[in-house]
Amino acid sequence: MHHIAIFASGTGSNARKIIEYFRGSRAARIALVVSNKQDAGVLDIARANGIPALVIHRNAFYSTEDLLRGLASHAVDFIVLAGFLWLIPPYLVRAFPRRIVNIHPALLPKFGGKGMYGMHVHEAVKAAGEAQTGITIHYVNEHYDAGDIIFQAACPVGPEDTPGSIAARVQQLEHRHFPEIIARLL
Hints:
By secondary structure, this protein is of the alpha/beta class. The chain is built from seven helices and seven strands; from the N terminus they run βαβαβααβαβαββα. The chain has a seven-stranded mixed beta sheet with strand order 3-2-1-4-5-6-7, covered by helices on one side. The model has no long low-confidence stretch (mean pLDDT about 95).
């Protein structure tokens, strides 16, 4: 059985869908939720589902490898970034080669990189007059949104769309596809 750690910085809507998807699975379980924010909603989701959680601090995350011990203590062998906003340090990428995946709310390579997350992405898509957007699930390397692409799904963007309506459509794609793609990768 695989032991998955979900890294998230926010409310945790993707984390919730992933937890629900793997509940009762014989192939994998969510072993740990990791957040960089003490008040992140994802921590409440972890608590409600009886999943251990760990809050990490920036200095320790980047200047030590202490996190590896925490992951090992939960037998984590796969990491899912679900709205985690920090760049993953090289030691973590080396420890989990092609076993860290991320979801990005646009069709990479467009609208990726530092600072391109959440509503910033949808505002940029709207401002660029794109006819479509979507999601990209990719492996994580030492650069923002630059790992090999695993899966993409698109949705239309119309002239009447707002960043908010684009975000809602993209989130539907995230919830529909992310858990299934994770299951295929295990």
